[in-house]
Every structure is written in C-alpha cells, then in structure tokens.
Amino acid sequence: RWQKIFMFPLWSKMAVFWNKMFLTIIVLLIVLFLDAVREVRKYSSVHVNEKAANVNSSAFDHIQMKLFRSQRNLYLSGFSLFLWLVLRRTVTLLTQLAKEMASHAALETQVNDATEAAKKYMAENERLQEALSGKGDSKKKESTDATEEKLKEEVERLKAELQKTSNAFHKAKTEGAAVKKQSEGLRREYEHLMKEFEQLQQRLNKAEDKKDL
User: Fold this and answer.
1) Structural domain contains residue 62
2) Which membrane topology describes this protein (predicted)?
3) How confident is the model at residue 31, as a pLDDT?
C-alpha cells in the first residue's frame, strides 16, 4: 500500500525541490534562532540595568515582557530547528530501510530461482546416470561422461552462485535489521523530545497566564 502511495508522480516532482526547500527552512530557522539569542541577551542586560536603577514599574514590566517573549522565541526556534533535523534524519532512515527491504525481496527471489535451477539440473543428472548405467557402448559412455562433466560443472557453477546470493541475502538482512534498530531508537528519542517540548510549552503557557494576571 505504501509503495503504491509513494509511486505517485507528485512525489517525484517534489523530490527535485526537496533539498532546496530543506536548506531554505534550515537557514530560516537558524536566522530566527540567532535573532532570538540576540534579543535575549539584549533584554537580559537591559532588565538587570533597569532593575538596579529602580525605574517605574510600568517600564520594568514592559522590559520583562520583552524578555519573556524573546526567551519564548528562543525556545520555539531552537526546538523547531532540532526537530526539523530529526525529521530529516527519520526520512533518510526510512528511505534506507525501504531500499533494504526491496533488495531483500529481490535477493530472496534470486535465491529461490537458483535453488530450483540447481535441483532441476541435479534431477536431470540422476536420470541420465540411471538411463546410461546399463549400456556398455564405449562411445555412449564417452558422450555420457562428457554430458555428466558438463552437468557437474553447471551444478558447481549454480552452487557457487547460490552461495554468493545467499551471502548477499544475509548481508542485506543484517543491514536492514541495523537500520530498523536505528530507526526505532530515533523514534524513541523523537517521542522523548516531544514530551519535553510539551512540558516547556505548558510552562510557557503558565508563565503567560501569570503575566496576564
């Protein structure tokens, strides 16, 4: 089902602009993050100076509100930047996992075909040996020996191909398991970060409520 969904022509058209869009969003988030850091440093120093100067309460509250908003922007832009990078990594791992699964299926099909061909040649070899076991003609024995040698060579070749394909199949299976394990770890880390983000959002909401009071 997912293969049918991702085979839509729309995704192939979007893939051309995906890297450019990703880099654009990364640059935008970095600019917002640096601007938020600048604002926090600016209003933090002003907040300390105004507090030491004992100015009127309205100006002090205004500076405190500016500081709170700059801190909020810093948290939001920082978490957005980090989660965007996590999303990019997740997409990359899912793509690698899909490719490994596809190669795994292709190798499994190839192994099955090679096994069936080897069984077929071995069965034909046995039938020829049984058919020619009772005949004593020298020419027929020579032709039988030549045919048998060819069949043995073909069987050996098929066995070598089967072994090679089996090794590649096990390698692809191991790599697919590693990618899947890494993807699970990344998913757990993403859920943990989302929980921390929700907690920070709740704290920000409480702080805003207190500020409104």
Assistant:
1) yes
2) Multi-pass membrane protein
3) 92
pLDDT of residue 112: 81
Dihedral-angle region of residue 54 (phi above 0 means left; psi in -120 to 50 means alpha; beta otherwise): left
* Structural domain span for residue 103: 8-124
Query: Does residue 168 fall inside a structural domain?
Result: no
Q: How far apart are CA 189 and CA 185, in angstroms?
A: 6
Does 143 fall in a domain? no
Structural domain count of the chain: 1
Q: pLDDT for 56-66, tens place per residue?
A: 667 777 778 88
pLDDT of 186 reads 75
Asked, for residue 55, whether it belongs to a domain, the answer is yes
pTM (whole model) above 0.70: no
